[in-house]
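To start, an entry.
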Amino acid sequence: MNVFLITLQAVFALLGIGVLGFWIIGRRRVPSETLAFLSTLAIDISLPLLVLGNLILDFSPRDYPDWWLMPLWWLGFTAVALGLSVSASFLVKKDIRSEFTISLLYQNGLFFPILIITGIFGQGSTYLVTLFLFMIFFPSLVFSTYRLFFSKGLQKESISWRRIVNPVLIATVVGLVIGLVSATDHIPDFVVTIVTMVGAIATPLFMLILGGNIYNDLMYRVKEGHRWQVREVVKFVLIKNFAFPLVFLGLLLWLKPDFDVAFIIMLQAVVPPITAIPILVERCGGNRRIGSQFLLVSFLVSIGSIPAFLYLFSMFFLIPL
């Protein structure tokens, strides 16, 4: 039961930071406009440095001889997730089908896994390197494809290479090159300290932003009389929080990959949607309210579903605690 309790504590830590962000914005401790600055700080600076710092400290081709296979596993995971997302979208009303699909497809594949891995294995775990190698192309996928699910988005936006060749991708490539050419010892200690310290604030920043965005998206809209689409949200949660993990666990039991691969894939399958869903939906002229509802309820349900499915996973793949 240790896996269940450790994971539960990690998820509660995320929830607590999100609640703090909700309270800060709700009590007007800082202006809502501050969230835009914090988002830029987290996405363009802190997260890339978090990735770079872990790769500098822990990645080497000697320790990870098959590192290049991780992006291929991600490609397979994404292909299955896409098939499941598109198929499941026909279960909901046509006018929210696009929001439903991208909320299923784009998982919170970095921040939840980072805190869960840290909670289970401790700071500086080598599984963080495996995670970053697995997710190297995920941000580029999100920013280059989300508009394809919306006809309005296709009309309003063109491809932005700045989003495809994003800071996270650049940081991952730089970290890989440093490890492959064994240049880590030539990097001054103070540079590594700066990178790791700034990178460490990425996860709390994103959860503060999530809490603040939830307040703006839901509380104000409730006051304006907007109603919840309960049936559609229940469908979403049943598929995202329960069907996805069961499908991928079944595939893992069939394929029997190494533990590193299986563990990362299972983490990707159990986490809720990426926190940027409401923003992406709004950019494409979609229904931001339903995107926020999918995100919030899936996040709350994941407090119990993530520990439960990781405990189920540990019954078939021994987690080295």
User: Anything to note?
Assistant: The mean pLDDT is 85. Residues 43 and 167 are 8 Å apart (CA to CA). The longest helix spans residues 288-314.
